[in-house]
Amino acid sequence: MFKMNFLKMRTRSALRKNQSLRASIPYKQAKSVGIVFSVDDKQTRADVREFIRVLEQDGKQVKVLEFLPNKKENYEIVFDFFSVENLSFWGKINSEHFDSFSKTAFDLLFYVDMNSNPLILDLLARSKAHCRIGRYCEEESPYFEMMIKQEGTPKVLIETMYKYAKQLR
């Protein structure tokens, strides 16, 4: 598919050109947190909602962006989202939500998918976030400042990410 090839070229270019300041900020000092994920099922969305509640109890301002795959229902429009429909032939993602989210300089940005998503990798490549945290995958190391090696469910990944993020000093 040409779109995906163009997207990969744009992503590599964005990753090279992005000059954002990257640093791990002590969790207690972090104020703004971003969460990005793919909608797989209602349970994933519920896990993300619980994560938001925990972060907000810690005094964080949380912003969420979800990727809605083809043929998936957006049962409840709770979060801003984008989809493959926003991908142009030339591999550019045309979405206000995507643009706004990628330009936000989050202190921490969590990518909570168990499987890689090229559209979200493009977002991570463009992101102004200071510390991007995601699941360990060797090929994706340029997209993250912190990676967590974790198998299982998104809930387990979220819990492990939170545990290690809280240890940032």
Q: Would you kindly provide a written description of the structure presented here, covering whatever features stand out?
A:
There is one protein chain. This protein has helices spanning 2-17, 42-57, 96-103, 118-126, 154-165, and strands at 32-38, 61-68, 80-83, 108-111, 131-135, 146-148. α2 (42-57) packs parallel to α5 (154-165). The chain has a single domain (2-165), classed as inorganic pyrophosphatase (n-terminal core) (Alpha-Beta Complex), CATH 3.90.1640. The protein has a six-stranded parallel β-sheet with strand order 3-2-1-4-5-6, sandwiched between helices. The chain is α/β, with parallel strands linked by helices. The protein contains five helices and six strands; from the N terminus they run αβαββαβαββα.
Proportion of strand residues: 15-25%
Supply Rg. 15 Å
The CATH architecture term is: Alpha-Beta Complex
The number of distinct helices, counting runs of at least 4 residues, comes to: 5
CATH class: Alpha Beta
Give the overall shape: globular
Largest sheet: 6 strands, parallel
The helicity comes to 25-40%
| Spans of at least 5 consecutive residues with low confidence | none
Specify the structural class: alpha/beta
Quaternary structure annotation = single chain
Provide the succession of SSEs: HEHEEHEHEEH
Overall pLDDT, averaged? 93
Compute the number of structural domains.
Answer: 1
| N- to C-terminal distance | 44 Å
